[in-house]
Design brief:
The chain is built from 16 helices and 14 strands. The chain has 389 residues and is an alpha/beta fold. The protein folds into 2 domains: 203 residues, Rossmann fold (3-Layer(aba) Sandwich), CATH 3.40.50; 168 residues, P-loop containing nucleotide triphosphate hydrolases (Rossmann fold, 3-Layer(aba) Sandwich). The strands form 2 sheets. A 7-stranded parallel beta sheet has the order 3-4-2-5-6-1-7, sandwiched between helices. A 7-stranded parallel beta sheet has the order 10-11-9-12-13-8-14, sandwiched between helices. Helix 2 packs parallel to helix 3 and helix 6 packs parallel to helix 8. The longest helix has 15 residues. The chain is globular and about 65 Å long. The structure holds adenosine monophosphate. Adenosine monophosphate binds next to helix 3.
Length: 389
C-alpha cells in the first residue's frame, strides 16, 4: 500500500514526495479513505503515529479541487506549539497547492493576525481562546467552513477548553465534516462527539498504548538526588537529543540552569516564556544546536522532532495519559527511543497504574557507582523544617 492509492491531487502528492513519505502509517491508511468520502471520523491515535498528515492530506486534497479564498477548514489545537506545528505540516505538505494557512493563538498581536487573515486564508489552525476573540470581533468568519478538526481532544478537556469549544461550535451554522482526534476517549469527549458528529467512523490505533519502538526504564532515587542522578545518566548514556520533563515551570528552569552549570547545552520551554523565546528554544532544539530541552507537559505539547533519542521524566507524570504523551516525543514513526523515568517512593501508585497499562513490570535500574545514600543537604532540611513539612 502506498500513497498513490488515495488518488490525491497531484499538487498534494508533490508535497508527500517532498517530505519523503512512502508508506502510509496505520492511522493514515484507515482514516484517509473515510475522510475523503466526506464522512465524520473519530481517530483514536497517540502522537507520533502520523495523525496530523492523516487529516491534513485529505483537507488539502478537498480544498485544492476548487480554491475559494475563504476559510474552509478549521483545526482547533490545545496549545500554540501544536498549532504552529500543524501549520508547518500544512505548509510542507501543501507547498505546491497554493493554499494558505495561518496559526492563531494568544500572546501575540491580534492586529498582525487580522492582517494575515486578509490574505485569502483557507485553513486556520487555532487555539480556542484567541479563536473566540476573533469570532466575537468578527475578524474570522466561518460561514464558508466545510471541515472542522478537533485535535488532541482529550488534552483540550484536561486544559479546560471544552466550554470554549462549545462556544466555537455555536458560531458554525452550516453543515460541515467533523474530525476528532484524541489519544484517549474520556466520557466527556465521547459525549461531545455524540452531540456534534454525524454517524462517525471510528478509527482506533493502538489505543492508549505507547509506541512499540520505545523502551521504558525506571530509576528509583530519593527526591534530593534527582539532579545528581540525571547528570550521571547524561554522562554515561549515548544520546542524540534529550527531552527532559519536569512537573513545574519553576523546576524546568532550575534543572536547565543546573545542567548549563554542569557544561551542557540546554534550553528550557515552559509556559511563562514569551512566544519568541519559546520558538527560539524549539528551533535550537530542532536544528540540533541545542541537545537538551527541559520542558513542562503543556509547553512540550506537539513538539515534533524526529531525532529525539531520549525522553527523561525528571518527575513521574501525573497520569498514564501524560506518560504516553510525553514519551510519544521519542520513538516517532519507526525510529527507536528510550524513556527514562526518575521515581521516588511517593510514585508507587502511579508506577502500578503504568505497569497495568503496559501489561508488564517495568525494569528498575540502579546506576553503577552512583552514591544513592547521600543525605539531604542541611540547608534543605532547614527549609523543610521551617515550612513544617
Ligand atoms: P504526528 O503523529 O502527526 O505528530 O507525526 C509524527 C511524525 O511522523 C512527523 O514527523 C511526521 O512528519 C511523520 N510522518 C507522518 N506520516 C508519515 C509517513 N507516512 N511516513 C513517514 N513519516 C511520517
Amino acid at each position: 500500500m502506498n500513497f498513490e492509492t488515495f488518488s490525491f491531487h497531484p499538487s498534494v502528492m508533490a508535497g508527500v514526495r517532498a517530505l519523503g513519505y512512502s508508506i502510509p502509517t496505520p492511522i493514515q491508511l484507515h482514516a484517509i479513505p473515510p475522510i475523503m468520502q466526506g464522512r465524520d471520523v473519530i481517530g483514536l491515535a497517540q502522537t507520533g503515529t502520523g495523525k496530523t498528515a492523516a487529516f491534513v492530506l485529505p483537507i488539502l486534497h478537498r480544498l485544492r479541487q476548487n480554491p475559494q479564498g475563504s476559510v474552509r477548514a478549521l483545526i482547533i489545537s490545545p496549545t500554540r506549539e501544536l498549532a504552529e506545528q500543524t501549520c508547518e505540516v500544512i505548509n510542507d505538505l501543501g507547498s505546491k497547492t497554493g493554499l494558505q494557512s495561518v496559526a492563531i493563538y494568544g500572546g501575540v498581536s491580534m492586529d498582525v493576525q487580522i492582517k494575515e487573515l486578509r490574505r485569502g486564508i483557507e485553513i486556520i489552525v487555532a487555539c480556542p481562546g484567541r479563536l473566540l476573540d476573533h469570532l466575537w470581533k468578527g475578524t474570522i468568519n466561518l460561514s464558508d467552513l466545510e471541515i472542522l478538526v478537533i485535535d488532541e481532544a482529550d488534552r483540550m478537556l484536561d486544559m479546560g477548553f471544552l466550554p470554549d469549544i462549545r462556544n466555537i461550535l455555536t458560531c458554525i451554522m452550516n453543515e460541515r465534516q467533523t474530525l476528532l482526534l484524541s489519544a484517549t476517549m474520556p466520557a466527556e469527549i465521547q459525549r461531545l462527539a455524540l452531540e456534534i458528529m454525524h454517524d462517525p467512523v471510528n478509527v482506533q490505533i493502538d489505543r492508549t498504548m505507547p509506541a512499540k519502538t520505545v523502551s521504558h526504564t525506571l530509576y528509583p532515587v530519593q527526591q534530593h538526588l534527582k539532579t545528581a542522578l540525571l547528570k550521571e545518566i547524561l554522562r554515561k548514556t549515548k544520546t542524540k537529543s534529550v527531552l527532559i520533563f519536569t512537573r513545574t515551570k519553576h523546576r524546568a528552569e532550575r534543572v536547565a540552569q543546573q545542567l548549563i552549570r554542569a557544561g551542557y547545552q540546554v534550553t528550557s520551554l515552559q509556559g511563562n516564556l514569551p512566544q519568541h523565546r519559546r520558538q527560539a528554544a524549539l528551533e535550537g532544539f530542532r536544528n540540533g544546536s541545542i541537545k537538551i530541552l527541559v520542558a513542562t507537559d503543556i509547553a512540550a505539547r506537539g513538539i515534533d522532532i524526529l531525532s529525539i533519542s531520549h525522553v527523561i521524566n525528571y518527575d513521574m507524570p501525573e497520569s498514564t495519559d501524560d506518560y504516553i504523551h510525553r514519551i510519544g516525543r521519542t520513538g516517532r514513526v519507526d525510529k527507536n527511543g528510550d524513556a527514562l523515568t526518575l521515581v521516588t517512593d511517593a510514585d508507587e501508585a502511579k508506577i502500578n497504574a503504568l505497569e497495568r497499562l503496559l501489561d508488564a513490570p517495568l525494569e528498575r535500574l540502579t546506576l553503577q557507582g552512583f552514591d544513592y545514600s547521600k543525605p539531604v543537604p542541611q540547608n534543605r532540611k532547614l527549609v523543610s523544617n521551617n515550612r513544617k513539612i
